[in-house]
Amino acid sequence: MSAQKGSAFLLKIGDGAQPPAYQTVAGLRTTQMSVNGDTVVVTHKESGGWRELLSGAGTRSVSVSASGIFLGSDAEASVRAHALAGTLADYELSFEDGEKMRGRFLVQRLDYAGDFNGERNYTLQLESSGAVLPA
């Protein structure tokens, strides 16, 4: 197994159609995905002093963080519109090996920053709503 390029880890947003067509959110320099899960403990007297967990139970979620240079793309405008409206959108995470994951996400946070003589940057945080599945 070879190392994969970080530049090939892409975030894409759906166009709202069914099925959605996805457009790359341009300008991203860093992208991070975290899979989170809560556990359900089912330890009982006969567990022998060891904690036992219930497989498949609990709440799972996916968080996506990204940051980059603002380019004014249609995809960036769509992300901003969903952030301002507080609405869910379809997103796709695409990896160099061709693997893709799709799900509905809410823009948890969208920040813009810029220096007088520099580019305009943005960071965003997405939180999943429902299942995030391989595509």
Automatic annotation (TrEMBL):
Pfam families: Phage_tail_2. InterPro entries: GTA_major-tail, Phgtail_TP901_1. This is Phage major tail protein, TP901-1 family. It comes from Allopontixanthobacter confluentis.
